[in-house]
Amino acid sequence: MKFTRFTKGSSVYTGVMSENTIQVINGDIFGDNWEYTGQIFSVTDVTLLAPIKPNQIIGIGANYVSKLEDRPSELPEIPVFFFKPISSVIGPEEDIILPEGIEKVKFESELAIVIGKEAKNVPESEVLDYVFGYTVGNDVTAPQFFHQDGHWTIGKSFDTFTPLGPVIETELDPFAVNVEARLNGVEKQNSATELMIIPIRRMVSYLSKVMTLQPGDVILTGSPVGAEFVGAGDTIECKINEIGTLSNSFVLAKEQVKS
């Protein structure tokens, strides 16, 4: 199933997308009590939002190699991870706002995991039982700040720096998809998830030993080789075929205020 959130007029809805229509649902998507309302909208008649309002966003850093033979023979015991604020989340077609004084940032197309039930001390063999589904994420980053504060938090935390969407796909083999990105129509990233250094089962299992993961938590699993600096006027399309395309354009903060 492809779960999504959208607006029609002044109302916000949750629904299940199939081809060109969305069937509205009521209830908690993480439980068994949601149901169809009977309302159906055309995708072209609504505005898609980020498919989830996360409880928290955890990012995994430096997690891809360019080819399988570059994977380390021994996997790191501890993944490099960081947090992003929920205020950084936007949906498809929303503008990514460049911080004042920053002209260039990096896009990072990623497979994003959506946790479906409370997870604590989960063994690797059971990780997928706790995953609700997957969406596309863009871990927008201003690396200039890495040199100022010595860590990644500020450079990844600005408003609009975590586009998510267009849907949460619950029927996906996360080990057999490609993560892609096109900048102004030109392919920049296209890597299979098998090129991850720390695979999904290990990263989620480790995180669940550090913290209790809750339904609605989002884990960004790392970005393939090929991320580049971008600026105002650029458009980035992050794509996983089985999920869809997440498209956003970059604008200067002052341009966004004037509009």
Task: Write a brief caption for the model.
By secondary structure, this protein is mainly beta. About 10% of the residues lie in helices and about 40% in strands.
Q: Any idea what the CATH superfamily of the largest domain is called?
A: Fumarylacetoacetase-like, C-terminal domain
Q: What's the number of extended β-strand segments?
A: 19
SS-derived structural category: mainly beta
Residue stretches low in confidence (pLDDT < 50, at least 5 long) are none
How much helix, percentage-wise, in residues? under 10%
Number of domains: 2
Please compute the radius of gyration using only Cα atoms.
18 Å
Distance between the termini: 36 Å
What top-tier CATH class of the largest domain fits best? Alpha Beta
Descriptors:
globular, mainly beta, 2 domains, 8% helix, 12-stranded mixed beta sheet, Fumarylacetoacetate hydrolase, domain 2, 259 residues, 3 helices
Task: Describe this protein's structure.
Helices cover 8% and strands 39% of the residues. By secondary structure, the chain is mainly beta. The protein has two domains: 1-48, SH3 type barrels (Roll); 50-258, Fumarylacetoacetate hydrolase, domain 2. Strands 1, 2, 3, 4, 5, 6, 7, 8, 11, 12, 13 and 16 form a twelve-stranded mixed beta sheet that branches. It has a five-stranded mixed beta sheet with strand order 9-19-18-14-15. A hairpin with a 2-residue loop joins strand 2 and strand 3 (21-26).
